[in-house]
Write a structure and sequence with these properties.
By secondary structure, the chain is of the alpha/beta class. It folds into 2 domains: about 5-235, Ribonuclease Z/Hydroxyacylglutathione hydrolase-like (Metallo-beta-lactamase, Chain A); about 240-380, Flavodoxin domain (Rossmann fold, 3-Layer(aba) Sandwich). Helix content is about 35%, strand content about 25%. The protein contains 12 helices and 21 strands.
């Protein structure tokens, strides 16, 4: 696939893996992206996951059309992008590996010292002329590993963005970019909002026509659509005006309360309302829902003097990623000693700038008329 006249896509689609990074469901596959820049000098950017190295090398050879690559540019050392380095160098032993010092240290860790016969260590702000194209290197530490670099090609106005602007799904997955890009961002990159903000500032002055990420589709057209969303997400703001309800339920009573609240919110026209059964949904989808919406409701049974395990996992996922700047409502259930609300508030204490609703709904086993009144109060408060 031609990205521009000189830049070709040589990545692969993975339809075999069920869990990306061992935890994220990818029912529509996953793309491991790599690109070739054809000029007086030829640069290949990144490699792919180990099981797809042979297919990738075939794609590279086809794009090269008999020529030899001069450079292999490494943006990110996670194995889904670096596993093919050794095979590439066996196929093209004279190629120079281009990376920063931290990436070369990781290459030694992954493959042993001495793999790269020819090395070019780049600095932040450094350049690599290929002919018409010049690659400009911009360090992006902790987006989302310390060695990450992005590269700007000033000829075709292309940003090779590493894992930034990536998404779950193969390149031919027919789905809206925002949903799976959001799930990818909040699951994998979201902890590092400050570092993403720093990267956005660095690239804001660049004239970017195309973004070539390491996962998902190549992005073109209105680039501000993508950079604006990343600005919202990385500043821990909501891009959706609505309420996310996340619940756990043992015998269905807490579920009834959560669904009753959803009905009350929808009846009031309180923006979008999404509901997640944490025991059955994809946890990363629920996490993304909590970050993308302005308001969150946690509904949990009391379990062994604590909250239900799926709720504990969910709140830990939020706090680990720096959840903040939201309104949070709570529904609890407990047959003889409801403690879920107290536990959930305690778990959220490390999250900054959260506003807890005045109304807390407390069930003692089943839903009562008083609970229904409290649910209506909570709905009014969330819609206020």
């Amino acid at each position: 696939m031609d990205i521009t006249k000189d830049i070709k896509y040589v990545g692969v689609n993975d339809y075999k893996t069920d869990l990306f990074e061992g935890q994220y469901r990818i029912p529509r596959g996953m793309a491991y992206n790599s690109y070739v820049i054809i000029d007086e000098k030829i640069a290949v950017t990144d490699t792919v996951e180990a099981d797809f190295t042979r297919e990738w090398l075939s794609n590279v050879a086809s794009a090269l059309d008999g020529r030899k690559p001069d450079y292999l540019v490494i943006h990110h050392m996670e194995p889904d992008h670096s596993a093919g380095i050794a095979e590439f160098l066996r196929a093209y032993p004279d190629a120079t590996v281009v990376a920063n010092a931290k990436a070369f240290a990781m290459i030694d860790n992954f493959f042993g010292v001495g793999l790269c016969k020819n090395k070019l260590t780049v600095e932040n702000g450094g350049t690599l002329p290929l002919g018409r194209h010049t690659l400009n290197f911009i360090f992006a530490p902790m987006v989302h590993w310390p060695e990450v670099t992005v590269t700007y090609d000033d000829a075709d106005k292309v940003l090779f963005s590493a894992d930034a602007f990536g998404k779950f799904g193969a390149t031919d997955a027919d789905e809206p970019w925002t949903d799976e890009a959001g799930r990818y961002y909040f699951g994998i990159v979201g902890k590092y909002g400050a570092q993403v903000q720093a990267l956005l500032k660095k690239v804001s002055a660049l004239d970017i026509k195309i973004i070539c990420p390491l996962h998902g589709p190549v992005l073109s057209g209105d680039i501000s659509r993508y950079t604006s969303l990343y600005d919202v997400w990385s500043s821990y703001s909501a891009d959706t005006d609505g309420v996310c309800i996340a619940y756990t339920s043992v015998y269905g009573n807490t579920e009834k309360a959560a669904l009753s609240l959803a009905e009350a919110l929808r009846a009031r026209g309180c923006g979008s309302v999404t509901v997640y059964d944490l025991a059955r949904c994809d946890m990363s989808s629920a996490v993304a829902g909590a970050f993308r919406n302005k308001k969150l409701v946690l509904a949990s049974t009391t379990y062994n003097g604590d909250v239900f395990p799926f709720m504990r996992e969910f709140i830990c996922c939020l706090s680990e990623r720096g959840y903040k700047n939201r309104t949070v409502g709570i529904i609890e259930n407990g047959s003889w000693m409801p403690l879920a609300a107290k536990v959930m508030r305690g778990m959220l204490e490390g999250c900054k700038n959260l506003s807890l609703t005045e109304t807390t709904v407390t069930l003692l086993s089943s839903l009562t008329d008083k609970n229904k009144e409290d649910i209506e109060k909570l709905a009014s408060e969330l819609c206020g």
